[in-house]
Structure formats: C-alpha cells, structure tokens
C-alpha cells in the first residue's frame, strides 16, 4: 500500500525492483527503460482495487493534496487537440567551462524548459588554494548556450469530465485537463 500513498517513494520502489530483476521486468511492466530519462521507469497500473481508497466519486473532490499521489477517477474523456511533438529535454552548454547540462521539460507547465541558473560543472584550477581533490572548483557560471532540442516526445491533452448526474438539484459536472505523453498518446 505504501506504493500508492507516496508517489515519489512508490516510483523509487518500482525502480529498485526493476533494477534487482536485471531490467527484464521492464518489458512486462511498462516497456523498455530509457537510460537517458532520469525520471526512471514508466509503469501503467490497471484494475487497481477500490479497497485502497484511491478512487474519487467526483472530480470536484480532487484538491491540492492529491498532487504527487495516485488517484483513480472515472468520467467522459474528450481530446482537446491533435497529438503534438513536444520537447522532453533540452541540452545547454556552459559558456565558461563547456559542461553540458540537460534540463527536462515541466509537463505540468505545457512542457516549459527553463534555462539553468548555475552551471554544475567543474573547472580545473591547478595550484588553487580552494581546490577540491583533483584541482577542480565548481564553475557556477550562469551563461549558457542552447544546443537545440534533440529530445522529443509525443504530447496530447485530454479533458476528463464527471459523468452527468440527472436530477432536479444536480450540479454542473466538474472537469480536469489531463496530459498524456509517449505511449499513452493516441
């Protein structure tokens, strides 16, 4: 049950289980693992038992505390647009030390990618008093050059709307926007 209570911990547990299995379970659970994607394994859960308390009766019950938690909902699904290609990640090269940093898109923010604020790379300064082992110091530069968008993914938005409840005092059905990526698109 801990798998469903904390999304981050659940993701780590699934990733550790796949690593121990030698990766062969990746094909059975969610498809091949993309080694360039640090977010890890993709898992699709189906037929989750209702006794776990994950289901909501109405989309209006979903609040901020549901962020980062598994939630089950049912409703009418409508596509909001065509499948699009979106950037999964963008590479930036530090103008001072040449270190390449990959920044991943924020899917929840229309695949926005922010320029890094500070370079995590290291510079070699032989004989420096403040040097780390190997004579290296953190670069820390904030100047970057974009190397282009070579990491793409499929992206599509859907609207999930509560099933209409008929009756005299029935409220208007709630809806939420859902973002699909990669193999869930289509």
TrEMBL record:
<dbReference type="Pfam" id="PF17207">
    <property type="entry name" value="MCM_OB"/>
</dbReference>
<dbReference type="GO" id="GO:0000724">
    <property type="term" value="P:double-strand break repair via homologous recombination"/>
</dbReference>
<dbReference type="InterPro" id="IPR012340">
    <property type="entry name" value="NA-bd_OB-fold"/>
</dbReference>
<dbReference type="GO" id="GO:0016787">
    <property type="term" value="F:hydrolase activity"/>
</dbReference>
<feature type="domain" description="MCM OB">
    <location>
        <begin position="61"/>
        <end position="185"/>
    </location>
</feature>
<dbReference type="InterPro" id="IPR033762">
    <property type="entry name" value="MCM_OB"/>
</dbReference>
<dbReference type="GO" id="GO:0042555">
    <property type="term" value="C:MCM complex"/>
</dbReference>
<dbReference type="GO" id="GO:0003697">
    <property type="term" value="F:single-stranded DNA binding"/>
</dbReference>
<protein>
    <recommendedName>
        <fullName>MCM OB domain-containing protein</fullName>
    </recommendedName>
</protein>
<dbReference type="GO" id="GO:0005634">
    <property type="term" value="C:nucleus"/>
</dbReference>
<dbReference type="InterPro" id="IPR031327">
    <property type="entry name" value="MCM"/>
</dbReference>
<dbReference type="GO" id="GO:0017116">
    <property type="term" value="F:single-stranded DNA helicase activity"/>
</dbReference>
<dbReference type="GO" id="GO:0005524">
    <property type="term" value="F:ATP binding"/>
</dbReference>
């Amino acid at each position: 049950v801990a798998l469903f209570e904390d999304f981050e911990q659940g993701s780590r547990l699934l990733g550790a289980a796949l690593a121990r299995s030698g990766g062969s379970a990746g094909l059975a659970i969610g498809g091949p693992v993309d080694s360039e994607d640090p977010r890890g394994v993709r898992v699709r859960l189906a037929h989750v038992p209702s006794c776990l308390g994950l289901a909501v009766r109405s989309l209006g019950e979903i609040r901020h505390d549901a962020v980062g938690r598994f939630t089950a909902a049912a409703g009418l699904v409508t596509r909001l647009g065509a499948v699009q290609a979106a950037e999964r990640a963008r590479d930036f090269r530090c103008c001072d030390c040449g270190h390449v940093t990959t920044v991943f898109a924020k899917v929840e923010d229309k695949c926005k990618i922010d320029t890094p604020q500070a370079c995590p790379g290291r510079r070699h300064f032989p004989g420096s008093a403040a040097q780390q082992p190997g004579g290296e110091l953190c670069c820390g530069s904030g100047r970057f050059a974009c190397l282009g968008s070579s990491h793409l993914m499929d992206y599509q938005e859907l609207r999930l709307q509560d099933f209409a409840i008929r009756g005299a005092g029935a409220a208007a059905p709630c809806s939420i926007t859902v973002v699909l990526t990669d193999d869930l698109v289509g």
